[in-house]
Amino acid sequence: MRTAAIVLSAGRGTRMQSDIPKQYMLLNEKPVLYYSLKAFQDSSVSTIILVTGKEDVEFCRNEIVEKYNITKVSAIVPGGKERYHSVYEGLKQLSDYDYVLIHDGARPCVEIDTIERSIQAAVEEEACVVGMPVKDTIKVSDENGFAVATPDRSTLWMIQTPQSFSYPLIDQAYRELMERLDKEPQNVPSITDDAMVAEYIFGKKVKLIPGSYMNIKITTPEDIRVAEGFLKKLEKL
């Protein structure tokens, strides 16, 4: 069984309020991106495709992949304008794989156990995402900021990554998505994660499996301090 991981690191992180992209900010003297790559390096995946900004390819190669001996990285490629463009660029580097995991490089606290369970769920279900049940009550607002609905909290999950799929399924789904974006972009809904691509193109039911409340995405300055604490707990530092 051949399994690949696509790690996305092309975002600029405007909410971080920093000149340094969030994935390259330091957590205990190592870049945020290092921890995601190291988790997949130590997992059972066969290869890692790193997708980054065009201007960051050489930096990632020299200062992260080679510096920290992440030997499973087989390609470092520029991403695209939107997340789905970047995923597609990563998928184009693969062929003849059985399963693929897609992960945000700004989630440094992903655990190897989560990766392995994601692979197993993809084997069983063809499509799965990790996430956790929400803890808070969620309100739906109108355009003026007034609450208009309160969904049943027991049905709501915070979706994380990795998101894991049969490679033929997600590869074909992305190819068809790109064709539709070329031909009729006005009819394509907003796509914010990979599960939506499988759902939109094929109507595929996607299995939800528990991840971890520690598997946060670095988005704001406060997240750096939180991640440092989680990484210490996970003994990654």
Descriptive overview:
The structure is a single chain. The radius of gyration is 18 Å and the shape is globular. Helices cover 34% and strands 23% of the residues. Strand 4, helix 2 (57-65) and strand 5 (73-78) form a beta-alpha-beta unit. Strands 5-4-1-6-10-7-11 form a seven-stranded mixed beta sheet, with helices on both faces. It has a two-stranded antiparallel ribbon with strand order 2-3. A two-stranded antiparallel ribbon has the order 8-9. The chain is α/β, with parallel strands linked by helices and 237 residues long. It has a single domain, classed as Spore Coat Polysaccharide Biosynthesis Protein SpsA, Chain A, CATH 3.90.550.10.
What's the short version?
By secondary structure, the protein is α/β, with parallel strands linked by helices. It has a single domain, classed as Alpha-Beta Complex (Spore Coat Polysaccharide Biosynthesis Protein SpsA, Chain A), CATH 3.90.550.10. It is built from seven helices and eleven strands.
The profile of the biggest β sheet is: 7 strands, mixed
The count of helical stretches stands at 7
**What would you give as the CATH superfamily?**
Spore Coat Polysaccharide Biosynthesis Protein SpsA, Chain A
Strand order of the largest sheet: 5-4-1-6-10-7-11
Shape: globular
Strand element count: 11
Q: Tell me the β content.
A: 15-25%
**Helix/strand/pairing category:** alpha/beta
Helical coverage, percent range: 25-40%
* Level-2 CATH architecture: Alpha-Beta Complex
Secondary-structure element pattern, one letter each: EEEHEHEHEHEEEEHHEH
From the 3D structure, determine the CATH topology.
Answer: Spore Coat Polysaccharide Biosynthesis Protein SpsA, Chain A
When the domains are counted, the total is 1
